[in-house]
C-alpha cells in the first residue's frame, strides 16, 4: 500500500506557528510524525548588550497568552545572578499573580482553544434545552444558571449567529465529523459554558490589572507596583492595595473557584464519559520521561520541596519510584541540541548548556524534502526541519506541563496533587495509567486549575494578614544599582508556567547582558527528534492514533491541542541602537 501523508499547517487555536506532518500506516493509524516550528523568536539575540534590569520587559512579550510568566522568570534570573532576596509581600504577590495566570490560562485553553475539538457547535442547534437543563442540574447542581429558559436563550443566540453566515472561529470546524460523539444536549451545554468562560475572562484578569496595572504583560516586578500599599486609605477601588481592593480580589478568587467547580471539572468528566478511548491515545513522553522545575514557594527565597507547592524533579523511563534531582546550573544536565534545528553550532553534534548557548540561525531545507521553492510540501527527517531547538535532560527527551506536574506529585506523594488525581480516577473507574493520554492531559490541567483557584483565595488572605500585621514592604532595591555588581555574573530564573517548565539563563558582563537563553515549555514538548531517531513529546504523542478522515485530521489536532502549544516568536531583530542584527529569508 502506498504511503499516506497528512500535513496540518498551520495548527490553529495556539500561540505562534506550528506545522505537523504525519504518515499513516496500513491500519489507518499514525506510524510517524514530525512537528515543525515555522517562525523564529530570536529574543536571545535582541537582549544582547542590553541592561539586565530591562530584560523582563522584552521577554515578557515573547507571548501574550502566558502573560507575565516570562517576566517573572527573567527577574528571577537576574536576582539569582546578583544575589537579590525578595521580601514576604513580594513573594505572596508573585504567587497570587501566577496562580491567577494559571486559572485564566487553563480556562481559556480548554474552552477557547481546545473544546471545539470535542464539541460540535452545529449539533447544539438540534438540542432540547429541557434535556440540557436536566444534565446541568445533574452534573453541576450548584451552578446558578441551569433553567430551561437560559439554555433556550443561548440556543436562539447561536441560531441567529449561524443564520447570519458570520461564523467567525466556528466557520471551519469539523462539524459532523465521525469522531464527534457528544449528543446535541451536551453540545449545547458545552457551548453555553464556552460563552460563560469567555465572559468571565475579563473578570479574573482584574487581579493582574490591580497589582500589575494591565493585562497582558502586567508591570509589577521592576520599577514599582501599579497600586501602592496603603491600608489607611479606603478611597477609590483600584488606586491602591487596601481593604477595598483586597476584598475585591478575594471575591474574584472565590468566583474563579466556583467557575472551575461548577463548569470546568464537570465538563471534563462529561467529555471523558463519551470519549473513553482517548485515555488510550496521546501519551507522548508522559509515561516515560517528565520534568518539573517546581513553583509557588510559600517561603520567600526558599526553593526546597518543603516550600514549593509544585515539586521539582525528573522521572526517567516511567519509573515513578525514583525521582531524580534537577540542577539547572549543572552544565551536564540540561543541554540544547540543534541536529534537526535551523541553527548553527561550532560542533553540530554537541549540546550546549544555556549559559553557553548560541543562537545563530542557519536555515536550509533537508535533502529529503519534497516541494517547490516557495512552500514545504513534505519535510524530510534526515536533516533540519524546525526553528525549535532540542533540549534534553541528561540526554533524555522530556515532557513538561500539567500532566508532568501531576505525575511528579503522585510520584513524590504530594497530598494536594495525588489525592484529587486518585479521586478523579476512581470516579471515572480508570487506572493510573489512564492519565498518560490526551484526556489525561486535560484532566490534569482541570485539577490543577481548581487547586490554583484555591491558592488564589489563600494568597489574597496571606497578603491581607501580612499587611494588617504592619508589613507594607514589597520591594528590595539593594543590589539593583549597577555600581554594586560584580564584573561578571550568571543566573537562572525558573518557573512552572501553565504550560510547563520554563527557564531563563543570563550571563552578565560589565553590567550588560552577554548571553541570554530561554527554554520555554513548548521547546521541550515540540522538540524535533534526536540523531538516533528518538521523537519529541508532540511527535511521540501521535504515534498509534487512528485517523478516521484523512483530509479532516481532527485526531491530530485533539492531541496537539492537549499540550496547549505556545510557539513564541519574533520576526524583527534589532540592536539597542535600532540597527538590524540579521535577516532570515525562508525560501
Describe it.
With 587 residues, the protein is of the alpha+beta class. The protein is 36% helix and 13% strand. The protein has 15 helices and twelve strands. It has helices at 43-47, 55-59, 69-82, 88-114, 129-139, 148-163, 184-204, 206-212, 243-274, 402-411, 415-427, 438-468, 521-525, 537-542, 554-562, and strands at residues 4-8, 15-16, 18-24, 30-37, 290-297, 308-315, 334-337, 390-393, 488-497, 500-509, 512-519, 566-567. The chain has a three-stranded antiparallel β-sheet with strand order 1-3-4. Helix 4 runs antiparallel to helix 12, helix 7 packs antiparallel against helix 9 (243-274) and helix 10 (402-411) crosses helix 12 (438-468). Residues 569-578 have low confidence and may be disordered.
Strand order, largest beta sheet: 1-3-4
Number-wise, the strands total: 12
- Parts with pLDDT < 50 across at least 5 consecutive residues: 569-578
Described by strand count, sense and barrel closure, the largest sheet is: 3 strands, antiparallel
**Cα-atom Rg, whole angstroms?**
24 Å
Could you tell me the mean pLDDT?
89
In helices, the fraction of residues equals 25-40%
How many helical elements? 15
* Strand percentage: 5-15%
Order of helix and strand elements from N to C terminus: EEEEHHHHHHHHHEEEEHHHEEEHHHE
How does the helix and strand content classify structurally? alpha+beta
What is the terminal separation in angstroms? 33 Å
Shape: globular
Amino acid at each position: 500500500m502506498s504511503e499516506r501523508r497528512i500535513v496540518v499547517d498551520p495548527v490553529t487555536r495556539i500561540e505562534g506557528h506550528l506545522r505537523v506532518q504525519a504518515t499513516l500506516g496500513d491500519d489507518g493509524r499514525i506510524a510517524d510524525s514530525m512537528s515543525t516550528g515555522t517562525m523564529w523568536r530570536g529574543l536571545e539575540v535582541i537582549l544582547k548588550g542590553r541592561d539586565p534590569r530591562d530584560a523582563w520587559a522584552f521577554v515578557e512579550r515573547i507571548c501574550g497568552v502566558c502573560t507575565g510568566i516570562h517576566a517573572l522568570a527573567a527577574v528571577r534570573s537576574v536576582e539569582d545572578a546578583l544575589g537579590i532576596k525578595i521580601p514576604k509581600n513580594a513573594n505572596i504577590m508573585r504567587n497570587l499573580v501566577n496562580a491567577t495566570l494559571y486559572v485564566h490560562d487553563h480556562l481559556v485553553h480548554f474552552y477557547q482553544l481546545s473544546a471545539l475539538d470535542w464539541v460540535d457547535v452545529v449539533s447544539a442547534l438540534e438540542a432540547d434545552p429541557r434535556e440540557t437543563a436536566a444534565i446541568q442540574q445533574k452534573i453541576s447542581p450548584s451552578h446558578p444558571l441551569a433553567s430551561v429558559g437560559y439554555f433556550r436563550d443561548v440556543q436562539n443566540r447561536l441560531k441567529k449567529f449561524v443564520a447570519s453566515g458570520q461564523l467567525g472561529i466556528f466557520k471551519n470546524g469539523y462539524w459532523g465529523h465521525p469522531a464527534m460523539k457528544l449528543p446535541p444536549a451536551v453540545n449545547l451545554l458545552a457551548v453555553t459554558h464556552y460563552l460563560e468562560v469567555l465572559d468571565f475572562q475579563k473578570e479574573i484578569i482584574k487581579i493582574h490589572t490591580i497589582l500589575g496595572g494591565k493585562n497582558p504583560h502586567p508591570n509589577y516586578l521592576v520599577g514599582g507596583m501599579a497600586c501602592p500599599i496603603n491600608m489607611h486609605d479606603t478611597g477609590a477601588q483600584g488606586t491602591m492595595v487596601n481593604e477595598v481592593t483586597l476584598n475585591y480580589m478575594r471575591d474574584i478568587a472565590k468566583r474563579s473557584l466556583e467557575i472551575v467547580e461548577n463548569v470546568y471539572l464537570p465538563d471534563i468528566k462529561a467529555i471523558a464519559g463519551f470519549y473513553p478511548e482517548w485515555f488510550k491515545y496521546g501519551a507522548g513522553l508522559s509515561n516515560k520521561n517528565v520534568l518539573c522545575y517546581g513553583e509557588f514557594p510559600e517561603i520567600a527565597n526558599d526553593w526546597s520541596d518543603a516550600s514549593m507547592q509544585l515539586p521539582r524533579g525528573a522521572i526517567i523511563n516511567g519509573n515513578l519510584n525514583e525521582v531524580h534531582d534537577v540542577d539547572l546550573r549543572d552544565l551536564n544536565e540540561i543541554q540544547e541540541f540543534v541536529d534537526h534545528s535551523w541553527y548553527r553550532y561550532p560542533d553540530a553534534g554537541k549540546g550546549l548548556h544555556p549559559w553557553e548557548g548560541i543562537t545563530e540561525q542557519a536555515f536550509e531545507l533537508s535533502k529529503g524534502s519534497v516541494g517547490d521553492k516557495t512552500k514545504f510540501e513534505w519535510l524530510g527527517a534526515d536533516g533540519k526541519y524546525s526553528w525549535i531547538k532540542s533540549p534534553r535532560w541528561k540526554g533524555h527527551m522530556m515532557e513538561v506541563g500539567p500532566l508532568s506536574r501531576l505525575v511528579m506529585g503522585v510520584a513524590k506523594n504530594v497530598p494536594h496533587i495525588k489525592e484529587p488525581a486518585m479521586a478523579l480516577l476512581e470516579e471515572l473507574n480508570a487506572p493510573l495509567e489512564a492519565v498518560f493520554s490526551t484526556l489525561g492531559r486535560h484532566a490534569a490541567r482541570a485539577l490543577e486549575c481548581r487547586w490554583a483557584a484555591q491558592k488564589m483565595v489563600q494568597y489574597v488572605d496571606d497578603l491581607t494578614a501580612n499587611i494588617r500585621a504592619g508589613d507594607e514592604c514589597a520591594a528590595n532595591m539593594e543590589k539593583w544599582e549597577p555600581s554594586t555588581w560584580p564584573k561578571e555574573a550568571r543566573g537562572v530564573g525558573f518557573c512552572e508556567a501553565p504550560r510547563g517548565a520554563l527557564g531563563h539563563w543570563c550571563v552578565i558582563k560589565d553590567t550588560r547582558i552577554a548571553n541570554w537563553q530561554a527554554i520555554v515549555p513548548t521547546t521541550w514538548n515540540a522538540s524535533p527528534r534526536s540523531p538516533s531517531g528518538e521523537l519529541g513529546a508532540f511527535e511521540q504523542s501521535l504515534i498509534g492514533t487512528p485517523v478516521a478522515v484523512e483530509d479532516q485530521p481532527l485526531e491530530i489536532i485533539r492531541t496537539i491541542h492537549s499540550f496547549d502549544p505556545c510557539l513564541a516568536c519574533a520576526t524583527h531583530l534589532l540592536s539597542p541602537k535600532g540597527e538590524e542584527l540579521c535577516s532570515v529569508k525562508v525560501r
